[in-house]
Each structure stands twice: as structure tokens, then as C-alpha cells.
From TrEMBL, chain A:
InterPro entries: NADH_UbQ/plastoQ_OxRdtase_su6, Nuo/plastoQ_OxRdtase_6_NuoJ. Its EC number is 7.1.1.-. The chain crosses the membrane at residues 6-21, 28-45, 51-73, 85-106, 136-158. It comes from Mucilaginibacter rubeus. Keywords: Cell membrane, Membrane, NAD, Quinone, Transmembrane, Transmembrane helix. It comes from the Bacteria. One of its GO terms (molecular function) is quinone binding. One of its GO terms (cellular component) is plasma membrane. It is found in: Cell membrane. It is an enzyme of class 7 (translocase). This is NADH-quinone oxidoreductase subunit J. It catalyses: a quinone + NADH + 5 H(+)(in) = a quinol + NAD(+) + 4 H(+)(out). It is a multi-pass membrane protein.
UniProtKB/TrEMBL annotation, chain C:
It is found in: Cell membrane. This is NADH-quinone oxidoreductase subunit I. The keyword Nucleotidyltransferase does not apply. [4Fe-4S] cluster 2 binds at residues 84, 120, 123, 126. Belongs to the complex I 23 kDa subunit family. Its EC number is 7.1.1.-. NDH-1 is composed of 14 different subunits. Subunits NuoA, H, J, K, L, M, N constitute the membrane sector of the complex. It comes from Mucilaginibacter rubeus. The gene is nuoI. [4Fe-4S] cluster 1 binds at residues 74, 77, 80, 130. NDH-1 shuttles electrons from NADH, via FMN and iron-sulfur (Fe-S) centers, to quinones in the respiratory chain. The immediate electron acceptor for the enzyme in this species is believed to be ubiquinone. Couples the redox reaction to proton translocation (for every two electrons transferred, four hydrogen ions are translocated across the cytoplasmic membrane), and thus conserves the redox energy in a proton gradient. The keyword 4Fe-4S applies. It catalyses: a quinone + NADH + 5 H(+)(in) = a quinol + NAD(+) + 4 H(+)(out).
Length: 167, 343, 165
């Protein structure tokens, strides 16, 4: 249990660093560390497949692309857009609502039961695959269609529009 | 875990670590020798007989060179880069089965550090992490050539990881397991996966070249365009680490390739040999066979490097996205159809 | 434009066929070529241990010759120094004393004869200018050294060994 608290502390610590870091590239690097602690959380839950997929997809691919973009656009203080006053007010308001929602939901839950896995092997590849392709086949396929449509959309946005032929 | 088992594990880790470092060290020597032979030359032959001590001399030189950290570099990340590169190169060896079990005094010891049941994916994760060393180092150098090298490395790795993953999926459809140990055991004798997955193997091989940044895909360090690529600003042992990481990566990916496709520690007539010589010598011979395969594969990496010129960047992307990925998907479909028909 | 020499060849660029576009056959061809070279004998000559045979007219380090009786031929006329385009040669003349007849052929000889090997371009003009056939560039390659001053070769290094040794 102490491992959990230590890792949980690290994840929160790094996620605070993500939003407080001055340099956007540093902030992405902290985000990578945050995701790494998430991977450890999954391993602690014996969800090996989820852990490794989080590792490959988030740390190995998505954040690499984040880093890639940030390196290219070279954000710094000078290029930071000035936020108008209204946006700041809206931000504070939105944050306050989120805080209220989180606080109230925590109060509703009260002391939660310690999470116990009914089946500790649930996170292994074989079991997870069986669950995904039997019980949750439809949502699984629907989400893959969602990804496919996103991909098609990206390709569509990226292709140049063909110039109309000169009449 | 038992004490003897724990001690054995620790010994195994140290031994594997040492072996990968030595192999990487002598790969640099072999690279120069092989290059020389391909070009009708002799190669390094001054340090010791046949130049055998050359890697030590090189290493000593690297350590004694002046350390330069550019003034405008991000100091901490500049050091993190090469450290991460060599770390990710080394941890890949943890899941590779180096041989079948050996029995000593009633105990059986697996010649594998740990057999996690998502071994293949673990290798993937480590490989995809490997690009961070290059990216962080390239960015922290605060040099446009380094940055361009880092960016090339990132986009190249991401692109080729996809086709690599797809080529492995076809293999996993046949093996039905993600554990490298089980995959190795399934290829008992001469039933190597390469006979069942020739196209998949070729795809994997091409992607392995791209992932280890080896020629013809060594664009991140393309000296004709980018000075030194991501390690332009590096000197001394930090540069050494980057170069070393490449060779360790080559060793590990050769080992993975041998395990996934070339039967790992299996060899033809291994049962007959085991019956004749006893299980332990047979297991040790299996390790030798695996290393033979690995060394041939490393030689092949070098052979290709000294034959094929570098790709242009757009050709690289075309190859990755327009040829390898469709081929890999076709391979998956083909494998699925054939294995269903044969059932 | 009309070609005058008729040497112009019109190249026909054919689109690559499938095998050519597939990379792999070409790569296999390249690999086999390099493999052939792998088993060829290296052409390297490991220099200090093995030496390539010099050609007839190779010009190496200078040597000051002696005649058939072992006397130095050089008479310090200075023609070699004059002919030298790199001005590498310098010398001091001296008169032969009584009792030195077995050492020097003429009445005048070079007491100091120095060639700066860093300046010398091994053109062989000194050899051609010499009226006494006293200097020839028939030696080996000039060895390397650490200091510039060590490349100024005096008579100790240039004069041929005496005959009776």
C-alpha cells in the first residue's frame, strides 16, 4: 500500500509540475513522467496489458508527437498570446465549478471501500481479450470506427484541395 | 522467491549486462573490420594482435576527451539524453530467453531474467522509449542540426513502429502468446517462425533497421545534411554513450529477431543431441546457437550498411507509410485467411 | 541543336518495372556484390612492415655519392643549390688540405652540406644540375620526425657509407 501512496504522490507531484513549468518542453517531459507513474499504477493493479499499452501508446507515441510539435513551434514568453480579462474570469469560474463538483462527489462517496479485485488475473492479456471481444464487442468496434473516422478526417484535412480545372 | 533463485537471477542480470556491453564494444571493432573487408582493406590492426584491443583504446580515448557542455544548452537535459539512450538500450535484454532451462544440483534455472506474459509488448515499449534519449539530447543541445536530427528520429521511429507492430501482429496470430519464452519454445527443433512468416520477417527486418537508426535509415545522424545529427554538440563519453547505445540496440534487436523468427535457442536435431549429450550441454549449445544467430544478424546489419546508400527523407516516409504498412496489413489478412483455412 | 560530333546519345528513360520498384532484388544484387569483395584479398600494404616496390625513376631521399676509391665526389660548386626551385640546399665550401686526398676527389669540397627536407619537392633538378654526378635522389622515403629542425639533413645523413665498410 505504501508503494501506492508513494507513486500516487509522484503522479500528483509531476502533474503539478506539468502545469507550473515555464518551458513547454519541460512541461511535456514532466507529462511523460506522469504517464510513467500511471504505468506503475497499472502494474500495481496487475493490469499488465493496460500498463504496457499505456507505456507504448501514450509514452512511446502520443507524447513523442507532442514533444515533436512543441520542439518545432518553439513556444516562448514572447509568443504567448495575451489573454483578455474575460477569459481569465471564465477560467476562474470554470475551475471553481470543477472544484465544487469534485468536492461534492467526494462527499457523496464518503469513505470508499478498499478496491478489491474479484479476479486478480483480469488484467492479463488473455482474459482482457476475452472480455473485450465477448462482452464489450460492440463498444470496442464502435470505438475503432471512431478512430478510423478520425483518421480519415485527418487525411482529408491534410490533402490539398484540387484546383478547379481552368475552364 | 528462493534465495538460490534470487542469486541466480542477479548473476544472470550481471552476466547479460556484461555480455551486451562486450558485444556492443566488439561490434564497433567488427563494424570497422567488416567495413574494411567489404572495401578490400585490412581495417584496424595495430592495437594488439589483429587490432583486438582497438575497442579498449577507443573507449579509453572517449573517457579522456574533454567534456564540453555548450553554454546555451539545457544543462540537465543535455546529460539526461545520452543516459536515457543507453538505459533504454540496455533494459530490452530483460525479457529475452537466452536458452532453455539448466539444471544444477536439483534446481532448474531459466536462462531468462523474467518471463512477463507481455514480453513482446515490453520490447516494443522499450523500443518506443528509445527515441526519447535522442529527442531530449537533440533538443537540449540548442543547435538547429541537433534539433533537426531529433525531429527526424522521432518521426522515423513513430512511422516505423506502426508497421513493426503490424508485422508482429501477424506473428502473434500464429503463436497465440505474447511471452517470448513460449514463442521460443514453440519453435522447437526446426519449426522456426520465419518459414511461416517470411513476409512478416522481411517487414520486421526493415523496421528493425529503421528503429535502430542503422544505415540505410540513419537519417537522424546524416552527416552530409546535418553535420552530426542529434549528437552534433556532444563530446567525450556522452557521445560515446550515444554511439554505444546504437550498438546495444543492434544487439538487442538481433536477439529479438532471432527469438521471434529464427527459432531462438532451438536448432535442428536438438532432441537427438540432448539424448546423446545430456540436457545441460544441449541447453548450453542452444545458447551458443542463439549467439551464432545474433552475430550473423549483426553481421547482416553491417553488411547492409556498407552496401546500400542512405534513403532520402521523403523516400523513407513513402516506404514506411505507403509500402510497409499496406504490406503488413495484407500480411495480417493473408495469415488470418490461411490459418483459418488450414484449421 | 544539331550535334556536330555525333557523339550525343539520346537516353531513353523507361519507367521502372515492378521488380525494379520493389527495392529488394536490387538490394540483394548489391549485397552479393559486396559479399564478393568480402572474400577478395585486401589491397592494403601495411606500410612500415611491407613496402611497395619503387619504380625505376622514383625520387626519394638524396645521397651524396663517392667515387670508386671512396672519395666524396661533391666539389661544392653550388649548382645544385642554384638549380633548386625550393631553395632547400645550402652548403659551405672548404679547401682540401694535405693528407685529405683519400677523402675528397677535388681540391674543393663541401664542409657543410644541408638539405631541408621540408622544403625539398623531390623534383630531381639538383641531380640533373650536378656536373660531378655527386648527388642522386635514390634513397628511401624521408622518415617522419617531430621537430622541424630535425628535417635539415646534414652530411652525416646524406653522404654514402664509405666503400670499405
Amino acid at each position: 500500500m505504501s508503494t501506492f501512496y508513494f507513486i500516487a504522490f509522484l503522479s500528483i507531484f509531476f502533474s503539478i509540475l506539468v502545469i507550473s513549468a515555464k518551458n513547454p518542453v519541460h512541461s511535456i517531459l514532466y507529462l511523460i513522467l506522469t504517464f510513467f507513474t500511471f504505468t506503475i499504477h497499472y502494474i500495481l493493479l496487475n493490469a499488465q496489458f493496460l500498463a504496457i499499452v499505456n507505456f507504448i501508446v501514450y509514452m512511446g507515441a502520443i507524447l513523442v508527437l507532442f514533444l515533436y510539435t512543441l520542439m518545432l513551434i518553439n513556444l516562448n514568453k514572447e509568443s504567448e498570446p495575451v489573454k483578455p480579462f474575460m477569459v481569465k474570469v471564465a477560467g476562474v469560474f470554470g475551475g471553481g465549478i470543477l472544484a465544487v463538483a469534485v468536492a461534492s462527489s467526494l462527499k457523496l462517496i464518503g469513505a470508499s471501500n478498499p478496491v478489491l479485485l474479484q479476479n486478480p488475473d483480469l488484467g492479463l492479456v488473455k482474459n482482457l481479450g476475452k472480455v473485450l471481444f465477448n462482452e464489450f464487442l460492440l463498444p470496442f468496434e464502435v470505438s475503432s470506427v471512431l478512430l478510423l473516422s478520425a483518421m480519415v478526417g485527418a487525411v482529408l484535412l491534410a490533402t490539398k484541395e484540387k484546383e478547379p480545372k481552368a475552364a | 522467491m528462493e534465495t538460490t533463485d534470487l542469486i541466480f537471477r542477479i548473476v544472470l542480470i550481471v552476466v547479460i549486462f556484461a555480455i551486451s556491453l562486450v558485444v556492443a564494444m566488439y561490434s564497433t571493432y567488427a563494424e570497422r573490420k567488416v567495413a574494411a573487408f567489404f572495401q578490400d582493406r585490412i581495417g584496424p590492426n595495430r592495437a594488439g594482435p589483429w587490432g583486438i584491443l582497438q575497442p579498449l583504446a577507443d573507449g579509453g580515448k572517449m573517457f579522456l576527451k574533454e567534456e564540453i557542455i555548450p553554454t546555451n544548452a539545457t544543462g540537465f537535459l543535455f546529460i539526461v539524453g545520452p543516459s536515457l539512450a543507453i538505459l533504454t538500450a540496455c533494459i530490452g535484454s530483460a525479457v529475452i530467453p537466452w536458452g532453455s532451462a539448466i539444471a544444477i544440483g536439483g534446481h532448474t534455472f531459466d536462462l531468462q531474467v523474467t518471463d512477463i506474459n507481455v514480453g513482446v509488448l515490453y520490447i516494443f515499449g522499450v523500443v518506443s522509449l528509445g527515441v526519447y534519449g535522442i529527442m531530449i539530447g537533440g533538443w537540449a543541445s540548442n543547435n538547429k542540426y541537433s534539433l533537426l536530427g531529433a525531429i527526424r528520429a522521432a518521426s522515423q521511429n513513430i512511422s516505423y513502429e506502426i508497421s513493426m507492430g503490424l508485422s508482429i501482429i501477424a506473428l502473434l496470430m500464429l503463436t497465440g502468446t505474447l511471452s517470448l519464452k513460449e514463442i521460443a519454445e514453440q519453435q522447437h527443433g526446426f519449426a522456426w517462425n520465419v518459414w511461416r512468416q517470411p513476409l512478416g520477417f522481411i517487414l520486421f527486418l526493415v523496421c528493425a533497421f529503421a528503429e535502430t537508426n542503422r544505415s540505410p535509415f540513419d537519417l537522424p545522424e546524416c552527416e552530409t545534411e546535418l553535420v552530426g545529427g542529434y549528437h552534433t554538440e556532444y563530446s567525450s563519453m556522452k557521445l560515446g554513450f550515444y554511439l554505444f547505445a546504437e550498438y546495444i540496440n543492434m544487439f538487442i534487436s538481433s536477439a529479438v529477431m532471432a527469438t521471434l523468427y529464427w527459432g531462438g535457442y532451438n536448432y535442428p536435431f536438438m532432441d537427438n543431441f540432448a539424448a546423446w549429450a545430456g540436457p545441460n550441454p544441449a541447453a548450453i549449445f542452444g545458447v551458443v546457437v542463439l549467439f551464432g544467430k545474433i552475430f550473423f544478424s549483426i553481421f547482416f546489419f553491417m553488411w547492409v550498411r556498407w552496401t546500400i546508400p542512405r534513403f532520402r527523407y521523403d523516400q523513407l516516409m513513402d516506404l514506411g507509410w505507403k509500402i510497409l504498412i499496406p504490406l503488413a496489413i495484407a500480411n495480417i489478412v493473408l495469415t488470418g485467411v490461411i490459418s483459418t483455412l488450414l484449421k | 541543336m544539331e550535334s556536330l560530333s555525333n557523339k550525343r546519345k539520346v537516353l531513353e528513360v523507361k519507367p521502372l518495372n515492378f521488380l525494379e520498384r520493389a527495392y529488394l532484388p536490387a538490394i540483394v544484387g548489391g549485397l552479393s556484390t559486396t559479399m564478393k569483395h568480402f572474400f577478395k584479398k585486401p589491397v592494403t600494404i601495411s606500410y612500415p612492415e611491407e613496402k611497395r616496390e619503387f619504380s625505376e625513376n622514383f625520387r626519394g631521399m638524396h645521397s651524396l655519392k663517392r667515387d670508386e676509391n671512396g672519395k666524396e665526389r661533391c666539389t661544392a660548386c653550388g649548382l645544385c643549390a642554384l638549380s633548386c626551385p625550393a631553395e632547400a640546399i645550402t652548403m659551405t665550401a672548404a679547401e682540401r688540405q694535405k693528407g685529405e686526398e683519400h677523402l675528397y676527389r677535388e681540391e674543393k669540397y663541401a664542409a657543410v652540406y644541408e638539405i631541408n627536407m621540408l622544403r625539398c619537392i623531390f623534383c630531381g633538378l639538383c641531380e640533373e644540375a650536378c656536373p660531378k654526378e655527386a648527388i642522386y635522389l635514390d634513397g628511401d622515403i624521408v622518415p617522419s620526425d617531430y621537430l622541424r629542425k630535425d628535417f635539415i639533413y646534414g652530411k652525416d645523413k646524406l653522404v654514402e657509407a664509405p666503400l670499405n665498410q
